[in-house]
Amino acid sequence: MIDWISNLPNFSAYGTPVYFFYLLLAILPLGISLYFGKRFSWYEALISFIFIFLMFDGSSWQQGISLIAYVIYQTIIVMAYHRYRQNNNSSGVFYFTAALSILPIVIVKLSPAMVGHNSLLGFLGISYLTFRAVGTVIETRDGMIKEISPWKFIRFILFMPTITSGPIDRYRRFEKDYKKVPTREEYLNLVNTGIFYLFLGFLYKFVIGYFFGQHFYPFFEKAALADPSFPSWNLVGVMYTYGLYLFFDFAGYSLFAVAISYFMGVRTPMNFKQPFKSKNLKEFWNRWHISLSFWFRDYIFMRFVFLATKKRWFKNRNALSSTAYMLNMLLMGFWHGITWYYILYGFLQGLGLVVNDWWLRFKRKNLKQLPHNKFTTGVAIFVTFNFVMFTFLIFSGFLDTYLFK
C-alpha cells in the first residue's frame, strides 16, 4: 500500500497550470450548486480529500501520515477543551491546553537545532494549521464558540484552498461564513472577484515572481558571493530582488487561495493590501501577511498588554507597549525557525515598531509644524520600504552564507 502511494504523482498546491485545470474542473459542480443556492458539503469534502491526498502522496507520503496524526491530535484537544469549557474556566487548564496544541510545531521547529534533522512530525502547512487550532482553543476560552463538532473542526482546519500557505482563518468567522449560503447575486460577485484574483495571482507568481525568483535574484546572488567587497551593490541587488520575489510569490499564492475559496462560496480574508505603500512600520504590518500579523496582534500582543496592565507590571504605558512589540515580533521570528537570522529579523521588526511609536509621539509633541504633503509622505514610504527590504535580506538567510561560509 505504501509503495503504491509513494509511486503516485504528487501535485503541490498552485504549483502548475495542470493543477489549476484539474482543480477548477473538480469544483465546477460545487459552483453550479452554489449558483442554485445549495452547498453540497459531501462533494466539497470529497474533492478536498482528493486534492489534499494528491498534495501528500508520492514522495510526500510520510508528511501525509503526519498530517492525519496531527489532525486527530488537535481534534481531540479542541473537543476535550470545549467539553471542559461548558462548565469550567480555569486559567491553568487553558494554558495547559494551549501548550498541548502548540507542542507539535515547537517540536518541529526545535528539531533541526536540537537533533540536526527535521522532525518526522512535520508536514507542509503545519504552521498554518497550528494557528487555526490554537486560535480555536483561545476563542473557546473566550466563550466565543458555543457549538463545535469534530467534523466542523476538521472541515475548518483542513479547508483545502488554504491548507498549505494560508491565509490563516478563524473558526468562528469561517463557520459563520460557511453556514450562510450566498445568494445567486452574491455568489456571482464572488466568482467575478475570484476570477480577478486568480489572474492577478498568475501575474504575481508566474510572471513577476518568476522573473525575480529565477532570473534577477540568482544573478545578484551569484555576483554577490563572487564579490569580496562588503557591502557591495550586488548585495543591495540581492536585498531588493529577494524582497520583491518574496512578496510576489507569496501574495500570488494567497490570491490563489482566496480565489478558490470564493469559487467554493467562502470569503477567506485577504492576506496582502499593497504593503509597500505603507508610510510606517505599523501600517506595513496592517497590510503585510495580514492574517498572521493580526493573529499575533490579537492573541499575543493584546493579551500580554491586558495581562501586564491587570498585574501592574509596568508604570509607563510606553514601556509596556514597547515590551509588547518586542515580545510579539521576537515570537514571530522564533516561529519562522530557530536560526540567528529569523530571530534577528523578529528583533529588528520589534525594534522598528518601538522606534516608530517613539517617532510618532515625538513628532506629535515637538514637530507639529512639520508639513504633511506628498513629499513627506513619499519620504515616509521610502524609509519604510527600505527598512523592510533590509529586514527581508536578513530573513532570507543569504547573509549566513555570505558572511560565514
TrEMBL record:
Recorded superkingdom: Bacteria
Membrane topology type: Multi-pass membrane protein
Entry keywords, A to Z: Acyltransferase, Cell membrane, Membrane, Transferase, Transmembrane, Transmembrane helix
EC code: 2.3.1.-
GO MF annotation, one: acyltransferase activity
InterPro entries on file: Ac/AlaTfrase_AlgI/DltB (IPR024194), DltB (IPR024024), MB_O-acyltransferase (IPR051085), MBOAT_fam (IPR004299)
Cell membrane in keyword set: yes
Acyltransferase keyword on record: yes
Any single Pfam family the record assigns to this protein: MBOAT
GO cellular component: plasma membrane
Pathway in which this enzyme or protein is active: Cell wall biogenesis; lipoteichoic acid biosynthesis
Protein name, UniProt field: Teichoic acid D-alanyltransferase
Taxonomic lineage: Bacteria, Bacillati, Bacillota, Bacilli, Lactobacillales
